[in-house]
Amino acid sequence: VNGAHLHLLLNHIPTVAFGVAVALFLAGLIKKSEDLTQASFVAFFINALLAIPAYVSGNAAEYILRDQPGMSAEVLAAHQNAAAFGLIVMEMTGLVAWVALWRFHRWVIPTLLALSVATFALMARAANVGGGIRHPEILAGQPALAGGGWPEFAAMGTAFIVNHPWVWPICEILHFVGLCLLFGVALLVNLRMLGFIGGVAFADINRLLPWAVIGLVVNVITGMLFFLAAPDQYTQNAAFGWKIGLIVAAGATLLYPIVSDEIRLLQRDAPVSMVARCVAAGSIGLWIAVIFLGRFLPYIGSE
Amino acid sequence: MGSVLEQLEQTGLATWIRESGVLYGYPLILFLHTLGLSTLVGLSAVIDFRLLGVGRGIPLKALERTFVLMWAGFALTAATGSLLFVADARKHALNPAFYVKLLCVALAVAILVMIRSRVFRDQSAGRALAAASLTCWLVALSSARLMAYISEFIS
Q1: Mean pLDDT of chain B, nearest integer
Q2: Most buried residue among A252, B48, B90, B91 by CB atoms closer than 10 A?
Q3: What is the pLDDT of residue A3?
Q4: pLDDT tens digits, residue range A177-213?
Q5: What whole-number distance in Å separates Cα of residue A200 and Cα of residue A276?
Q6: Closest chain A residue to B49 measured between Cα atoms?
Q7: d(C-alpha A84, C-alpha A81), whole Å
Q8: Which residues of chain A approach chain B closer than 8 Å at the C-beta?
Q9: Helical H runs in chain B?
Q10: How far apart, in whole angstroms, are the C-alpha atoms of residue A127 and residue A129?
Q11: DSSP state letter for A196
Q12: Poorest-confidence range of A129-143, A185-199, B90-104?
């Protein structure tokens, strides 16, 4: 599987899989079913995680395609900018969905309705422009689709980090701050689930969990800026793909304590089931593996 | 002083760390350094948050067991940090950011010991200590990250 092939597989996630999540959400609202809306929140969050590999695999595909005859650099750039716009709104959707699962507020329903419909429309547009890479006839006669007038977030991100020498070091510092926040809080939560820490009800520990998500958000933003500065350096690196894959898996474990009734309602000295212990141990192991690959990335180098 | 640092850099161990080029050399030491520091700083920050009022329902007693992990993280970070220092002793010894980092780490660890003895045992309010701890860790992380840029700037 090369980068182009991988992108063709993964690009169904922000489009088709996300469409299914929107349908679940709407069905939940119409049927007034809490189970369906909860399931759609989980699906929104997982989709937002998977959209990251879908996006970065696009640059891996571009690395292979850009020198082929008949490739239009304008259409490639337009697709990338359209995808970046969709990704930003998609990540906001996933974030609000996580907050809704953590603690439900009334405002999340209209917010998620607006964000998820906007994400779907933006991703549909990105897919449409992307289809025009191999099938220029799609875009013929519709120059408005190909990018003119739309915000160019990918190009803006690249310009921001490349043109200002202070941005990279500041992002490095923030990436470490985010890492410590995320790892520290995730460690504490998982140690309670493992039983290493006792004498505290999970509801109290749960108040700290958003700080792990704040750390994750900081690191996704700063990480994406590193990526935008030098995409080839990352897509051609053997450690990078694994790191992104493990971030998706590790990020998904942030759902477990807020979705599992056993953990949410865990009393002060109550024992924890084997399943929850395995999830907790897996979560710690996955975050350590993410740190490992991040540190090895510059030394493993290009294939 | 300079010759001591130079001799340190020329020991077999220092040369191996710097020049072996194998993945279980310099990169592995760097990874263990990061793992140790994120355990220490992460859990210490969690305790600071608790003292500042986030998750105030958590009994301090429940957090006592995290100290074992924080000291293990500190030991790992200090041991691997010494190895990284030996490998480039003269470069780091000339770098002002390195001393800022060492000072902030020493202060933050001292604050952690004080939190343990005063707040955990005597139940005194720890807001000021918690704020000082977070500040020290933030400056330590920042100066650590900036070491590479500052050493390039002064050379």
Answers
A1: 92
A2: B48
A3: 86
A4: 999 999 999 999 999 999 999 999 999 999 999 999 9
A5: 16
A6: A208
A7: 5
A8: 169, 172-173, 176-177, 179-185, 187-188, 191, 196-201, 203-205, 207-208, 211, 288, 291-292, 295-296, 299-300
A9: 2-9, 12-19, 26-52, 60-63, 66-87, 89-93, 96-114, 122, 127-154
A10: 6
A11: S
A12: A129-143
Which of B19, B30, B34, B52 to mutate against chain A (most A CBs within 10 Å)? B34
Q: In this structure, what DSSP letter does residue B118 have?
A: I
So what's the pLDDT on residue A303?
A: 47
pTM, full prediction: 0.94
The distance of A76 to chain B (nearest Cα, Å) reads 35
SS3 label, residue A55 = helix
Is B13 within 8 Å of chain A by CB? no
Q: Which residues contact B58 (CB under 8 A, 6 or more apart)?
A: A200, A204, A205, A207, A208, B50
Distance of alpha carbon B104 from alpha carbon B99, whole angstroms: 8
Q: How many CA atoms lie within 13 A of B20 on its CB side?
A: 15
SS3 A148: coil
| 8 Å CB contact between A202 and A209 | no
Distance to chain A for B25, nearest Cα, Å = 11
CB A91 within 8 A of CB A220: yes
Q: Check CB contact of B8 with chain A, cutoff 8 Å.
A: no
Q: How far is residue B146 from each of residues A64, A283, B31, B42, B113, measured CA to CA in Å?
A: 35, 30, 18, 20, 27
User: Distance, in angstroms, between B58 CA and closest chain A CA?
Assistant: 6
Q: What is the average pLDDT value for chain A, to the nearest integer? A: 93
Which of A177, A185, A299 is closest, CB to CB, to B138? A177
3-state secondary structure of A146: helix
